[in-house]
Design brief:
This protein has about 1950 residues and is of the alpha/beta class. It contains 54 helices and 55 strands.
Amino acid sequence: MGNSYAGQLKTTRFEEVLHNSIEASLRSNTLVPRPIFSQLYLEAEQQLSSLEGSSRVDNEEEEEEGDGGLEPSSLSNAYQLPPPPEGCCTTDGFCQAGKDLRLVSISNEPIEVPAGFLLVGAKSPSLPDHLLVCAVDKRFLPDDNGHNALLGFSGNCVGCGKKGFCYFTEFSNHINLKLTTQPKKQKHLKYYLIRNAQGALTKGPLICWKGSEFRSRQNSANTCSSSLFPLLEGSGSLAAFPSDPVPGTNSIVPVRAQQAGPASDHPSLTTVTGPAVFNGKDSPKHPQLVKNNLSALPRPSALGILPNSGPPKKRHKGWSPESPSAADGGFPQGGGNRAKHEGSGMSCIPQAGLVGSTSVTIPVVASGEPVSVPDNLLKICKAKPVIFKGHGNFPYLCGNLNDVVVSPLLYTCYQNSQSLSRAYEQHGASTVQPISQEMQLLLTVYYLVQLAADQVPLMEDLEQILLRSWRESHLTEIRQYQQAPPQPFPPAPSTAAPVTSAQLPWLAGLAASSCNDSVHVIECAYSLAEGLSEMFRLLIEGKLAKTNYVVIICACRNAAIDSCIAVTGKYQARILSESLLSPMEYQREVHYELVTGKVDSLGAFFSSLCPEGDIDILLDKFHQENQGHVSSSLTASSIKKTAMLDAGGVPVCASYHLEPRGVRPFQLAVAQKLLSHVCSIADSSTQNLDLGSFEKVDFLICIPPSEVTYQQTVFHVWHSGVLLELGLEKEPVTKQRVEQHVLKLDVEAQARFKAFLQNSFQNPHTLFILIHDHAHWDLVSSAVHNIYSQSDPSVGLVDRLLNCREVKEAPNIVTLHVTSFPYALQTQHTLISPYNEIHWPISYSNGVDLYHENKKYFGLAEFIDSTLSGHSLPLLRYDSSFEAMVTALGKRFPRLHSAVIRTFVLVQHYAAAMMAVSGLPQMKNHTSVETLEITQNLLNSPKQCPCGHGLMVLLRVPCSPLAAVAYERLAHVRARLALEEHFEIILGNPSSGITVGKHFVKQLKMWQKIEDAEWRPQTYLELEGLPCILIFSGMDPHGESLPRSLRYCDLRLINSSCLVRTALEQELGLAAYFVSDDIPLEKGTKNEALESDGEKLSSTDEDEEAGTEGCFEAGSTSEKRSPVKRERSRSHDSASSSRSSKASGSVLYGESLVQPLGPPQGELARSPPPCGPSEEGRTPGEMQRLRVSQGSTVISRNSPGLAPQPDCSLRTNRRSLQVPATPSSQLSSSGSSSTCAVPTANMLVLQASQCSMAKACRQPPVVFLPKLVYDMLLSTDSSGLPKAASLLPSPSVMWTSSFRPLLSKTMTSTEQSLYYRQWTVPRSSHMDYGNRAEGRVDSFHPRRLLLSGPPQIGKTGAYLQFLSILSRMLIRLTEVDVYDEEEINISLQEESDWHYLQLTDPWPDLELFQKMPFDYIIHDPKYEDASLICSHHQSIKSEGQGLGRWLNRGMSRKPEDLYMRRQTARMRLSKFAAYNTYHHCEQCHQYMGFHPHYQLYESTLHAFAFSYSMLGEEIQLHFIIPKSKEHHFVFSQPGGQLESMRLPLVTDKSYEHIKSPTFTPTTGRHEHGLFNLYHAMDGASHLHVLVVKEYEMAIYKKYWPNHIMLVLPSIFNSAGVGAAHFLIKELCYHNLELERSRQEELGIKPQDIWPFIVISDDSCVMWNAVDVDCAGEQSREFSWSERNISLKHIMQHIEASPNITHYALIGMRKWASKTQSSEVREPFSRCHVHDFIILNVDLTQNVQYNQNRFTCDDVDFNLRVHSAGLLLCRFNRFSVMKKQIAVGGHRSFHITSKQVSDSSVVIVPSQYICAPDSKHTFLAAPAQLLLEKFLQYHSHRFFPLSLKNHSHPVLSVDCYLNLGPQISVCYVSSRPHSLNISCSDMAFSGLLLYLCDSFVGASFLKKFHFLKGATLCVICQDRNSLRQTVVRLELEDEWQFRLRDEFQTANAKEDRPLFFLTGRHI
């Protein structure tokens, strides 16, 4: 075999073919070998010509298929087109005669095809998306196996009809292919064209040119996706998304396979309905079934040699002898053997309409001879077998392809499990071998064997089995990477010795031997083709009747195996084949069956079943007999009972209540969580949301195109009042205005959305919240819309609108997605950050009720729980008799879709049940017990209520055409039975509104007390109490809420084959609602109270969200709470007996005698639909059993948290009701009640005569499910969750890998979100597909939030509440709390003859003002707890009311309460407000320094030194001056040393300049201090200096980069505000002198330099002016009003005052809302000024602030200024508002123990002083602060006589210290020539000498008189000066001292304590 064949090719080839022929004839019994020469010339040439492996042609073709074009592989090879004839057409897609050849254009036109010709599709490189139609002689095309094509060409043009083209080159020119490479028919004739069932020409199978399949296997996956899966125009549905991943079809080049999810979501190979016709002829069939494929397999030497040989250009010529030898073979070393075998077949399966749901059509790799599908397969088998391709090659199928379905899902699953080891290696594990193919197949057989007869195989199950098995076999290597314990699912064989391919068939057969023929194994010797043929033979012969699965194994080769699995079980095959249809195809299929009349056979069959004759005949007969009178059992008269009558004589039902609207605690909690997330976005450093720039909130709610949902949302918005609250509308709000804020995402949405965007653009100061409700609907990418734009403009609408660039970039739009099923928005490519997800909170945590509500949510977990808890009748049920009938009919009518069969059966059951209840008892045998129960209760419920309230039955029919059929049929039966006025039948279609008959509208209006004549119900909630069947259609519910009267949820018709988590949960979500929780439960029951979906005791989530919020909890664990007690009642009658299953309208009791149950008030509060902004407003159903002895949970479907109302009707008709117990043996274990006896009509007597509303609202609806869904919900996997939880979460996503853990039962919603974010990726049709940053932070959209919560829980109410509190917060951001306190001590005002009478003076008159007395009394309310200052002029009336009140104040107040209890008012910030660092606006950006010209580092530090004699040392201050502010200063030239701060002249007049520099001392308020004066100054130029401590310099500089800072020396780091004031004043006086000397050189007089500065608190926020209107000049009658003005206005007004330099201090009033006229009547006062003062540093040169003071330093300074004979003027017509700031300021001083170990001990003021030399705890606080605080709270220890003794105050010399509110002081100055009050007639109760200087002498003190026993307190810096002071002042002459009366502040020695000495007056 190693010889070279060069030079002897012909001989060798001849011998080879001869050898093959002889061998084939020896082996074969039946086949006659083909002639040697035909093999040699017709077959081998084709094979070899198409195997031009790695040279020119192959490269060209790879490129052509990969790029969809036909470019040359190299320029040297370029093909030159001959020039076209003059005047001919050269348009692409048209022939040269100008006729259209494109398939899409002429698919429906009749085309003449001559005999022997076929229509084929040619690909043009210039039209990659189109096929050109050509007619070609079939002799020049290959047969089905790729053989026997004559060389050459013969074809016709179908456009112009020109015939006889003999060369393909000539033909390609005629049809304008415009090739750049050599024209070859193999390259450009691609597809057969076939006629579909509608007669349209569509693309068929690939033309199997020999070798094309082999070549495609070498190509990459995108090769396949672009050329192998084109769109099928004929079928009109999406066949491929060009970028979808494709299951790998190659074992040599590994391609990442698409993940296997539920069957409906994967690339599938199905067939269209109707036979596929190949251009009028049947597809080629082979006359015999091939059992031996050897003749089809050329010897290995014939394949893989001569890679460069080209085919001969002329027919019958030999090969060129220069061909290279086999030594140059074109196979990789390792893969050659495998590739030789695989390459011999064709990748060619006729694709007549092969479409998957969201998927691609995949030509399954074929090999060997084709297998013919028998003609009558479906007829014989009663189901289409579904064949899953497994390992290796799959043969080509031909023949009756309509009757089989081929799917690559299993192949994909196997590929995924092969990638497991690679996934582990990425985690760093050592190389781990993947699970072997043999093992995969064996495990699959084990899995199929253990499936029950009614179970359907799930790919998710198989993936988990493969994963577990693999994990077990490599446990040691992977244990460190995944801790999950191994759980063998099927009993896997030992993996110690690997299974070989030889053992495999035997082991598989052994495994299958135990399953009673359910699994049949076929072993093939050579290829799968013989196994498939064998299977088809057995199916036709009926030998596989009991077999559900056929496993075909071909293990004949050394390395690899071929396998496939066919599902032949009728039930399984039907479900699997239907699951491969997309929703669109499903609808189309059903519609086709209805339109073509295929369903007529079903109707005929039903007629034959009824022994009494056709049902319609019975109905007509019944109608004629009963015409004119209604059946007596149902007459309206029998409904009337003794009932309450209202004033008009109309019966009233006590169970039907209107309730007030309200917001439940849960909704409020969620709204607050939403708000906190929005705030966190705003607070983040990314500045993606500037909340401070928004003034109001607007919103738009986008909802799916459902009319009912639209009206429901409009209703919620209208009644929530949110539009009024947001200020968007004024009363009264009309519905039309509300509709502006709700957008239905239909065709008209685009225009309205554009208007919304325009609005957001025009209103940058409005924050727009774009709410996307029901956000899991329509996640289709807008790219897909481009493909579909003609057929369905609404496809991809959400993506086009909500993800458009304008929304993403708008800084004022926040998008909120709201959904119950967020899984499709939680993928690796999601736009929503995990930190921006808000999950509905849980109600319980560790047994504690977190949000107290009287209703608890009852969702899917609780429904499942009801089936496990021993509840007498589970709320989830299935109907076994219905399922049995459907299965039987499915076998009888295999060509009908099961949805059609199920619908017809169910409608038949309802019709029969209605007839049975109406008086045709014989029809009971033609319905199921469940349907009869529903119908009986529907018809009998109105009889129980005086008003005729009834219950609702929801009949879910997803397919709209079937829903219409059901509606017509049921309406016909109702009419024939004369029941039109007993119950309504409503067809609920998403695209249209609700239609209700006039009679029922009248009833609804009467019940709901509606007067409007035009009113019609528009939402399902408004159907409260209406007896009706609601036929709910539409493929998906769109968030419609159902009323509380819903009693039965009939979901038997939901598309059970669509096994996706979202689909299942949203169907079951229709039944979710609330249970009342306000019945007092007995001991032991409380723990069983209802728990919301899935909170786990082990939950560690900070938010404690509902775990596995998607509603899946098994519920069997002890901590689960169930809505009804679980214990079975003592009489064992909890069975689903004939009576209990008969009528859930009857109230059945477990006890033989029932005590009357009086429920607490309000237990049954009900609300009709129009209540509350919540989704859950409904509650149907009553309990089948009320366990009176145990207590029970009462259930209501209420609007959120509303005021309960008493319900009288509950107490009636209960005492005598007795129900005999039924043996529990009648319980049907399946959960259905099919085994129960058929109830009889007279049983209805047992029903309590109560309104069904009262009963229905006490229990959830009963839900009927298909058996398949029921089993999925009730069977749990190893995680303890239902199987349904592990399904693919949404059809638009796919798993990233089989290598994934299961969801865990203990997962919270957050953890579940992270799970899906890790393990799912969007499909290419998903709108997030292009967002490929995969989890990186920058891939998340910053202003996008996701709110998820269980269905019907009240999410609408929550987000509407969020809008309200967001609006309030924005208003709150523009509001501040300002101190609003009345002035104090008004009643103690000076009694003086002097008043400032000139009421209209804008400025004070100096002469008049000087005559006014100074008011010593403090009126500032912040000094309410300060000592009163006595003066000579006060009326001293110690018994006076005002004084008495004053003396008693403050005693009960704790010191720490002072700040908390001060009164504030909330004020809206005006445009003249001062702001903190959180304010950003464009006007003040430059002012704040956030401007490109002023970078943070552009400021300079300057030292400024001056000497001060009192401190005895030089003071050095530092200025930080930004570049932008340097013009305010003078610098030396050269050197740039700071010399002085520029000061203006007194005579300067400028309207845009403020003359006085403003100094603001601040500490601890770098963020909250109001230093942004830009708006307050109205943009005027001003100099503003922040005075900060050295340790805070850096942080202030960071927040205020463009402000001038004055940094105090470090010795003042622990000083109080007195030090800052002292240094400001001294600095400014020193600067004044510098400026005077500087400007004196310029000829300016010293007195002309402006001497004023402003010292402002850092909390001054706004300023006001009072406008006074005086009636006359002297009249004191006047009116006044206050308005907000700018600080600029005030400053310029004051600075313009005449004689202003004569005033030392100027201030203004503090604002208060209750300002009295008397306070503003006089425009000026001579009194204390605080907070915002204008200080004349020139006049006050010799008056200093006390640099040691922490409190009251301004009062102390005011008294010093006045005593120095200077003027203090307060402008009463101006006021300042002070903002309450909770941080910094004087609160930044904390007094703590100096010992670190004691730092947590609370220190009380009495501990602030101690005896000297004692072992007292020393404190870490300045001595001065301790002194001031001690005197404030405990001065009565030093001055006991002074307590409440206003007539005898404490004499305070040269200082004012606050001795507390109950002690008054008299201030005197010791300075010569100072102004003091006359004290000659006063006797003082105490003397306070504080750090007295040399001005205080003994003679000075002798002027004052003291009471006997008066006390003295002397305070000095140290003990030595204390003794010296006592001696110097001769104090011992009049005062008695004791050693124990000496004290010190509780400071350590190094902290320089202050020392006190106290004594008594002798």
